[in-house]
């Protein structure tokens, strides 16, 4: 003898109690999920295309050619200054 499965008779009878607000109404409300989601999408970092990245590199190279040509850092500048000072002292001591 087979068993009879229970039927969910209430599924089709569900009617929403209140009318749901429209998307425009939800976007007006600052604390609604939709408005917070929209704000987050606007704030989200936008990735640049390959073309834009290459263009920025070219503009950076054109605007600062001196920076890329010079080598060394602060330590190298200090060493150069000390060498120049020592060379100057040798010239004055020789004379």
Question: How many strands, which pairing sense, and closed or not: the largest β-sheet?
Answer: none
| Global geometry | rod-shaped
Round the mean pLDDT to the nearest integer and report it. Answer: 84
Estimate percent helicity.
55-70%
**Stretches where pLDDT falls below 50 for ≥5 residues?**
none
> How far from one another are the termini?
124 Å
Number of distinct helices? 5
Q: How much is the radius of gyration in Å?
A: 36 Å
Order of helices and strands: HHHHH
Beta-strand share of residues: under 5%
Describe what this molecule looks like in 3D:
The protein is mainly alpha-helical. It has helices spanning 23-28, 33-43, 50-63, 65-69, 74-94. The longest helix has 21 residues, at 74-94. The model has no long low-confidence stretch (mean pLDDT 84). Residues 49-59 have a biased composition (Basic and acidic residues).
Summarize the structure.
With about 100 residues, the chain is an all-alpha fold.
Please describe the topology of this protein.
Blueprint: H1 23-28, H2 33-43, H3 50-63, H4 65-69, H5 74-94
Properties at a glance:
single chain; 95 residues; mainly alpha; 60% helix; 0% strand; rod-shaped
């Amino acid at each position: 003898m087979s068993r009879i499965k229970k039927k969910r008779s209430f599924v089709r009878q569900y009617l929403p109690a209140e009318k749901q607000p429209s998307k425009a109404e939800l976007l007006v409300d600052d604390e609604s999920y939709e408005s917070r989601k929209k704000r987050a999408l606007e704030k989200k970092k936008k990735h640049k295309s390959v073309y834009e990245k290459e263009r920025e590199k070219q503009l950076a190279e054109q605007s600062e050619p001196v920076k890329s040509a010079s080598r060394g850092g602060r330590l190298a500048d200090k060493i150069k200054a000390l060498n120049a000072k020592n060379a100057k002292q040798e010239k004055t001591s020789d004379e």
